[in-house]
Amino acid sequence: MPDVAPAPATEIAPQTGGWPSLVADWSADRHAFRGVSWGKAMMWVFLLSDTFVFSCFLIGYMTVRMSTTVPWPNPSEVFSLEVGGTNFPLLLIAIMTFVLISSSGTMAMAVNFAYRRDRLRTVLLMLATAFFGATFVGMQAFEWTKLIHEGVRPWENPWGAPQFGSAFFMITGFHGTHVTIGVIFLLIVARKAWRGDFDTGRKGFFTSRSGRWEIVEITGLYWHFVDLVWVFIFALFYLW
Amino acid sequence: MGEAVHPANTAIPHDHAEEVELYHPHSWWTRYVFSQDAKVIGVQYSLTAIGIGLVALVLSWLMRLQLGFPGTFDFIDPPAYYQFITMHGMIMVVYLLTALFLGGFGNYLIPLMLGARDMVFPYVNMLSYWVYVLAVLVLVASFFAPGGPTGAGWTLYPPQAILSGTPGGQDWGIILMLLSLALFIIGFTMGGLNYVVTVLQARTRGMTLMRMPLTIWGIFTATVMALLAFPALFVGAVMMLLDRLLGTSFFMPSLVEMGQQLKYGGGSPILFQHLFWFFGHPEVYIVALPAFGIVSDLIATHARRNIFGYRMMVWAIVAIGALSFVVWAHHMYVSGMNPYFGFFFATTTLIIAIPTAIKVYNWLLTLWRGDIHLNVPMLFALGFIVTFVNGGLTGLFLGNVVVDVPLSDTMFVVAHFHMVMGVAPIMVIYGGIYHWYPKITGRMLDETMGKIHFWVTFLGAYLIFFPMHYLGLLGVPRRYHDIGQAAFVPDSAHTLNAFISVVALVVGAAQMLFLFNLAWSLRRGRQAGPNPWGATTLEWQTPETPPGHGNFGPELPVVHRWAYDYSVPGAARDFIPQNEPDPAGRAA
Ligand code: HEM
Ligand SMILES: [Cu+2]
């Protein structure tokens, strides 16, 4: 919302400094966060809520890891990949993580070009991001297949605590769903950008809201969040 | 800030960056059914919630019949009784109260009271309602599924919730319940994001946060809490579904059932309790805070006095909201925990009493020497204060570990939570409906029927729940199909039980009178006019009643004052609407 002139908070409450002025700022006329559009605010609030979902999943996982009576399988052995006869612990995961983090880079660049109204570069970078995301999901599917072949099931596995498989499939599955949804959104937004919706302000099919370049940034917020969550899953599940 | 004089506002330019994109319906379907107008969605939410709430009401009669006259009704066998309890509790708490306060009142009031044209994302808002409908349908479906609905208790504690000994545990019941909850949460999230962002970013000119009516503060804070508390329930539901459907053992320790070793092992039932109550306790305040807010406005309006200590009221709402995230384990004293934890949770629980007491004192001080109009909304507001204080005091008992342990799972607990989160919020809901019905329909609800409804409901609720304290102290357990002949239960307790049941039926009948009133007044009610109560808030200042599409005319109102300018000395009327400018000379 670039056309919002700053509403003078000073006119509403005298600036006194310290806490009172913080409160005055936040409770100012019309917007608590000046210059933040509705869509962006909504995405932030949603991400806050989603953070609680992932936190609960991870805390649940840590709890069952402690409550279970059978030893926990060793992640670096379970998640190793055999390449040319040697076993590389965590190789696949390392690659996956690298791919996902890179996608955050391309996403950030896409946002940058979106604000310069550079249609071509924005779209290409978004497609690259979507491609990285899809690669990530693909590698995850590969890992799932591999583990399932080795006998890992949500309710049992050959190496120890059954909760290992339960938590693994649940958490990576839930995260993978997030990535997949992100990829779909990236593709939709990229298509809109390419069609020029954001320059013409063409209205969305469902929402009948006119398109704005800012939507690229909002998609980016979601995408970065999903990456960030992965870092925690990586640390807590694979490295612990 | 609330009282600060607002300058003439000419310096602030119009902002129609997003406003202009109001969705205009083209057909009857998009106007009344798949409507994107928050007002219609609010009414839809309310009617659906009341509809499913009636089911919960009927279930409570059946339970009471069984408790009052054990052995008389063959079809209420123990499994059925458990199913009734579970569905009654869950429907009342989640599908009725939460949906009605946030989805119903929230949708209707937030844009109107803040001077917005609609919620920020009407389409998402509409989806929210339909996902809620889906959740309700899935819930209702469990009544017809093989094995019937779940009988695990509204707390759904594992392991029993998914074992064959519990009704619905190995059938469809628990699955449908968990699915329905997950859907409810998804639907609620869509709506909740809308409410929060509308409050934060879409207020009209001059409407600072510290000028918002307390109704909005209550709904807003409750929504934020819900967005942070429901995730725990969501995760708990997903994990239990996996336990039930895939045979994982998140919550399941190793078990022997009917002499058979089950395949589960190594899970933590206590984990579910933590997840559940991390949601469950805030949930109490998710229904209480909107009630606090609404009742503040009812009292100020109908006692013609400014709310006492507005700022304190706001901070108390926020403080209660924050504190309620660190008290959840007071529901788990009997589950066994480290004594230091018990100490911690008892302390935090008692600390919440402080902001809560502040609110009660402020309500009383608002009433003090006010020009109290004893009309129906005011009666319900007073009824709320009484029942809420009553339930709050027993809460202080139960918050202490040593008192809670013997009282836990007795009728005392049933009495406590019905007072504090059953009757009290329901009082506010009724008060709110009598208060805003004229705005929604343009006609007043019938006053005589309203008064009968109030007195029967209020006195009846007291006669139902007050004696339960006594039963609980005797040791009568909760969730018992039939207490039978126990040495510690005197015969008079059985008589008392029968009495309670009769009153419960009478109270139920009074609710039918209310529903009749709703329908009857739609056509025959007295014409209300735009502002029958002489209220200050923006929803009463709309150009049309009921408010049209877009709420306000071509120009949005500009707010010049807080919401509580009642009986201002020297003013022409005994209230000054929020959008009335100061007389020229007085402007800063
Ligand atoms: C006419 C009014 C009501 C009556 C007569 C009534 C009656 C009852 C009865 C008999 C029980 C079962 C007690 C037991 O054996 O453990 C119960 C449980 C419960 N009720 Fe109500 N109730 C009413 C309204 C409400 C309302 C408005 C709420 C909303 C919060 C509510 C929430 C609950 C809950 C959460 C339970 C516990 C369910 C469980 O143990 O799993 N009730 N009620
Ligand atoms: Cu609690």
Secondary-structure blueprint of this entry?
The complex is a heterodimer of chains A (240) and B (588).
Chain A: H1 9-12, H2 18-26, H3 38-67, H4 75-78, E1 80-83, E2 86-89, H5 91-115, H6 119-149, H7 163-195, H8 197-200, H9 214-239
Antiparallel strand pairs in A: 1-2
Helix pairs in contact in A: 3-7, 3-9, 5-6, 5-9, 6-7, 7-9
Chain B: H1 28-33, H2 38-68, H3 78-114, H4 122-144, H5 173-201, H6 214-245, E1 256-257, E2 260-261, H7 269-302, H8 310-323, H9 339-367, H10 376-399, H11 401-407, H12 411-441, H13 447-474, H14 491-524
Antiparallel strand pairs in B: 1-2
Helix pairs in contact in B: 2-3, 2-4, 2-14, 3-5, 3-6, 3-7, 3-12, 4-5, 5-6, 6-7, 6-8, 7-9, 7-10, 7-12, 8-9, 9-10, 10-12, 10-13, 12-13, 13-14
Bound molecules: protoporphyrin IX containing FE and copper (II) ion (CU).
Name the features:
heterodimer, A: 240 residues, mainly alpha, B: 588 residues, Cytochrome C Oxidase, Chain A, two-stranded antiparallel ribbon, 2 strands, disordered N terminus, binds protoporphyrin IX containing FE, binds copper (II) ion, cell membrane (chain B), iron (chain B), Cyt_c_oxase-like_su1_sf (chain B), heme (chain B)
Write a short abstract of this structure.
The complex is a heterodimer of chains A (240) and B (588). Chain A has helices at 9-12, 18-26, 38-67, 75-78, 91-115, 119-149, 163-195, 197-200, 214-239, and strands at 80-83, 86-89.
Walk me through the structure.
The complex is a heterodimer of chains A (240) and B (588). Chain A has helices spanning 9-12, 18-26, 38-67, 75-78, 91-115, 119-149, 163-195, 197-200, 214-239, and strands at residues 80-83, 86-89. Chain A is mostly helical and 240 residues long. Chain A has one domain: Four Helix Bundle (Hemerythrin (Met), subunit A), CATH 1.20.120. In chain A, helix 5 runs antiparallel to helix 6, helix 5 packs antiparallel against helix 9 (214-239) and helix 7 packs antiparallel against helix 9 (214-239). The longest helix of chain A has 33 residues, at 163-195. Residues 1-13 of chain A have low confidence and may be disordered. Chain B is an all-alpha fold. Helix content of chain B is 61%, strand content 1%. Chain B has helices at 28-33, 38-68, 78-114, 122-144, 173-201, 214-245, 269-302, 310-323, 339-367, 376-399, 401-407, 411-441, 447-474, 491-524, and strands at residues 256-257, 260-261. A two-stranded antiparallel sheet of chain B has the order 1-2. Chains A and B meet through helix 2, helix 3 and helix 7 of A and helix 5, helix 6 and helix 7 of B. The complex binds protoporphyrin IX containing FE and copper (II) ion (CU). Protoporphyrin IX containing FE (HEM) binds next to helix 2, helix 3, helix 12 and helix 14 of chain B.
